[in-house]
Amino acid sequence: MGIYIEDAPSDFYGELLAAAQRAGADVMGAYATLAAVFRRAVDQRLMHSTIAFAGMFAKVDYLVKECGVEPPLAYRINATRIRLRHLQEQDGGSLPRLFPYDLKHVCLFVSRVYGGAAIPPGLAAMLPASDLSADGGEVLGECVRVVAESCEGTVVTATGEHGGSLRVDCSGPWAPLCGLISPGSQLNLVRPREVGGLVVPELVVFEPDYLVDISAVAACFESYGATPYTYLINKLKPSPLSSNILLGNFAGQLLDEAVHGLDCTYADSAARFFRNNALALAACDGIDGGFHSEARSQLDNIRRAVGSVLPAEVSDYCPAEAMLEPSFFCETLGLQGRMDFLQMDGARPGRCILIEQKSGKGAFPPGPDPDTPRHQERHYVQLLLYMALLRYGHGRPNADIRAFLLYSHYRNSLLKVGPAPELLCRALMLRNQVVWCELWYARGGISVLGRLTPDNFNVGGQSGRLWEQFTRPQIERLLLPVRRATPLERAYYFRLMTFLEREHLLSKIGNKTKENSGFAAKWHDTLEEKLQAGNIFYRLSIDSLVPEAEGGSGIGRVRLRFAADTDAEGANFRPGDIVILYSYQNGREPDARRAVVMRATVVAISTAGIELSLRNPQTDSRVFSRPPGYAWAVEHDLFESSFSSLYRAMHSFLSAPARRRDLLLSQRRPRVDGSVALAGDYGAFNGLVLHAMQALDFFIVIGPPGTGKTSFAMLNILSEELLHPDTAVLVMAYTNRAVDEICSKLSDCGIDFVRLGSALACAEPYRPYLLSQKVACCKSVGQVRQAIASARVVCATTSAVNSNPALLQLKRFSLAIIDEASQILEPHVVGILGATSGGVESIGRFVLIGDHKQLPAVVQQTPDESAVADPLLRAIGLTDCRDSLFERLLRAHRSDPAVVYMLTRQGRMHHDIASFPSRAFYSGLLCEVPLEHQQRPLPPPAGCADEVGRLVGGHRVSFVSVHPDASDGSDKVNTAEARVIARVVASVRLACGDGFDPAVSVGVIVPYRNQIAAVRDALVRAGVSEAHQIGIDTVERYQGSQRDVIVYGFTVRKRYQLNFLTSNVFFEDGKPIDRKLNVAMTRAREHLVMVGCAGLLACNEVFAALIDAVRHDGGYLEAR
Fold first, then answer.
1. 890 lies in the same domain as 918
2. Are 726 and 833 in a shared domain?
3. Which of 60, 207, 496, 934 has CA 20 to 30 A from 987's CA?
4. Would you state the pLDDT for residue 41?
């Protein structure tokens, strides 16, 4: 890793002094600086802490206590934190009066938490001698957030978010919390009241920023009792694949169609379900006449319930106003959920109808009427939590919520349920225990799996036939792989599971390596912070509603218009991203917690607006109707099912054949058969293909930039494999973009294939190859199985394969090729490589193609958190969980040419551009093919009037040094650089003339989304007519792309930003390898222009060497 560069207290004080000096003219700008310095001071101080914090309240509370800040000052610092968080809601007229005090509090905070660093006299002179009066009283309301300090008996002493100490009564159903709470734990006190000096809450929620899915909490209520360990083993169970599960999914579709009023036959519905679930249906036994008979019966029951019973029994029922599968995020209760059916504000405002469908049977034993079910406790719990979510999160009294369980197996399917306060408290207490366990697992507690027995789950003391013959053996089978694993296998499993648990935790509450991260940023970040990070579109209005595909009557897509002054350039959204859509009242901050949320996928983004595809189509346009004064917002979603598939994959690895486990854990050497000969001829790549075919276990291909690792390595190895009968190849990559590239190569060569995944994640030309399209004409499950069996090439992302384990149950592949392997973490692939089909390995052998010196996988943990200390694991080369399997196997076998091959002939960069990356990152091994453009001499000088244009025209590699403007309001914007970049692009545009193609001729790489908008604006101002067609993006988005001319703008203005710029550095043989710089430089074919502040960049040794090299070759310029 690179050397972490810290800001000194003097750096903070310098920025605060500058803010104070301009506060009179621009108080909002001064406050923005104050907020930025405060956040940086907090985050930097906690950078090396092993504690995960959710939100600034928890971080600041920890620091003031850890550093011994006296309570009055701590209170005032916290008051400033609150003011900075809600700056947009403050009375603007009061800010000039408050600023000196907030400045003082931040200065004192920096001084106290940074070892008493003295405030400079010039700054100290500007601070008021007095303090604002402190109220200190705690205002009790609907929900109060506190941080626990200590616990005695059932009384918790805590600090309120608005300051002051509270004594909280946690007796009764909340008594178990006292064994979970530790100093620093955050609690939500729901509807608290003060009784005899104690705060008595109605509900207590532990670590509320960790949202738990309601259905997962309800699933813990088993016949043997409710325990958080059930939540754990449910994450490890193989994906449920049975006719009953598929029937439940089908019944859900039938309910949606009935509510939509869709006029279709059972055969139409079955065909639609068949296309969308072909893989699971093909892998499942029991899809026969009985399945269809039960499904037809459930369809009749559903139609009766929504078509006759509800209209007759519930006067407000109106399906046109109902939402299907709406989502809710309730930080108050620490819960999230997706309801099957919700009608809010129908004919009687304030009333709502809630329906949860269940396709299985009711409670056992059944009641006296076989056509009428009794509810199962877990189903009741699920509905109770949904009701609580509406009550406590949206202010809906229980009296206004009519809740039904719809047991579609029964003729009298609707079951009305009411509140059950005691059961609700039990469910929320279980949710609290689940969260405590999840935090524990992320600290290594996952090893408890090695000690659990079925008796740990049987908290209800069950002893009957169900427990002894079914439940106990089922739990034992799930835990057995952990118990029988070798010490090395257990160490591997526990360490990577801990890594996954922590990644999951940080995806919820945020991490230290990236600002504005974690799902909880939805409510912790201000609107301004979200805008700066590009994490929100707001002030949207609906342009049009588009019907769903396949002739459905529902609304499947939503097109939204941007407000007139919205600039989409800096937004961190791309087609294919999963997002949430919700409405809010103008004049208030958009807040997903207070809204009914629709989940969607981005289809397209233009300068005018954004188009979304709804995950669950809606019935009627009235669902989108809002009163005047409302607007819409879009934010990023969190796809938690991706973590679920990884937990299952890691657990399945323990059941992989011993030979495969030993191979992946370096307990045996990979086998090689030197007698294998080639059947085809691949020219200069014969050696590569021959070695790949002779490797009987695995083969590693290192593909530096421009060496054709997909075009030649992947394609030639695959082509040779297909020359042999009875072979099949599974080709995978991490990103859909890379899979599209693979599909393009296969298509160009006339190789047929099947693509796994969704249409939205697949480029248009390759959608006919999707499995759903390939099986559209199949009339039976048998025909689907035959179609899958006959496919010789299947393409997919690793995520799609992990999410569809049925593929590897149905089909055996002689070879798997994993492209982008250096970007894929071990948990993403070991389950796939360990899968079995009919007791035999599903994958015969595998080829890993990648380049560990380009950008790696995105990891949220710091290097300290992901480091591996266990000597057993370090002995097999597993030293850091952020490393890919590709890297670990490469380190173990890098000197073995029988299983490792490095491509060295690159056909992208001109020799002068490749020179520095080859020398600095690849030991000088890269050489040109050569192609014509790689040897082409520079044309004669064109007499450009602009010195920047002359520099670019006269050198293949150049560096323009620019000093940032002091007037820029954000550290992530550098307008001086943007102007120089525009001059470079304008000169390229002029030199290309009619041959200019914005998709080929030039591209701009910058590190921050905010800078993208600044560069685009500069291009417009410079008169570049194609300003909106030129690709301006981050280096992460540019990986895999190339342009004739690349302009790399470093953007950074301050030393601390070098940490972000060099966040992907590792050392090889003592030399720093800057992966981000490598990728940025090697996108260029004919010219590379770098723009930045040379003096600042020279603080880093690699940048200093690069600038010196450019200066030595005469390509350096100080911009004027």
1. no
2. yes
3. 934
4. 92
